[in-house]
């Protein structure tokens, strides 16, 4: 889906990244409304689908935004920060209060905000 959407001239890379980053955040926020395990699984499917597209576009786009001499280093830094944040989220989850939806609200809001920020990436990216 990511490969298809970025090739549509009216949508492009920037809008695909923005939409699916915000959509990932929306699914995270909506997952707080789940009251059954089926609802949790449904919202998690939405989160995983949208975030897979988001990461596909993000990692391809990060190479295009960086100058040629810095592409390898920049891509590695994006990838490393992603891995560190994923590991930290798991560690924080072990010690945090899991009886509150506050971490999900925060991460969902950050993703929605990041989706809007993605709209302001370089103008050469349609």
TrEMBL record:
SUPFAM superfamilies: MFS general substrate transporter
Listed transmembrane segments: 49-68, 75-96, 102-122
Keyword set includes Protein transport: no
Entry keyword Transcription regulation: no
Alphabetical UniProt keywords: Membrane, Transmembrane, Transmembrane helix
Domain of life: Eukaryota
Protein name listed in UniProt: Major facilitator superfamily (MFS) profile domain-containing protein
